[in-house]
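Quick question, first post here. What does this chain look like in 3D?
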Amino acid sequence: MNIIIHELKAGRKAFFLWTIGLAFLIIGGMTKYSGASAASGGNITALLDQFPKIFLAMFGMANVDIRMLGGFYSVLENFTLVCVGIYAIQLGINSVSRERIDKTYEFVFTKPRTRAFILTAKLTAGLIFLVFICLMSTLLSYAALFIHSIDNTISAVILLYAAASLLIGLLFFSLSAMLAAALSKAESGAKTAYAVFLVTYIVWVVYNSLDSAAPLKPFAPLAYFEAGEVISGSLNIAYAAVCLIGAAILLASAYRAFNKRDLSAV
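> Answer (accepted):
Ran it through. Tokens below.
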């Protein structure tokens, strides 16, 4: 428990900064809805139709109607998913490599606790932050609708996107923890994890840009829960299972790699 509390204290500043960033994104972004949904919204849609589809895909605006509240919110949530994915990678890296970065291996791992116990405590703290950032995203979404006096007709959509954020975040959290444990240098684990995320983002953009890109979907976690499905009130159960099973396999690999690692190599 002391390790969890220590990790929570160490990560609270980053959590608050990410929360502030999401507040600007969600509450600030929702100010644009009035213009998109008004009579001029048709002009905005016509203008967007002039842009190449790949450009719209980069901002999560392909295949959605931003004049509708659900469609507009899905655009904001695409950015939120990206933020949660990046934050999840940071959490996974820190959970495994904080002692390597801070040069405190000798202090932590000479205690009468197994490596698995210590790693479990640190990963638990990271998961707490991940759950809370998704919870804050949900609360900020409700707050944005209230602040801008927008009728909340998308409560189910907000909750489904929160679940999607958590599932995708869990996958990237587990991936980064595994890479941090498996690679010899902390910097290598972080760089590789962020590189993988960038590649999956590019694949997501390509997937949204092409009409026949279904084979790319398994390689683009950001596309696992598409706006149309979420707005209609459902999550893709198959890809939810992929996230959970993939996270379990990656975390198991992280434990194996961590138990074999030379902790003196800092």
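The CA atoms of residues 70 and 205 lie 20 Å apart.
The chain has a mean pLDDT of 87.
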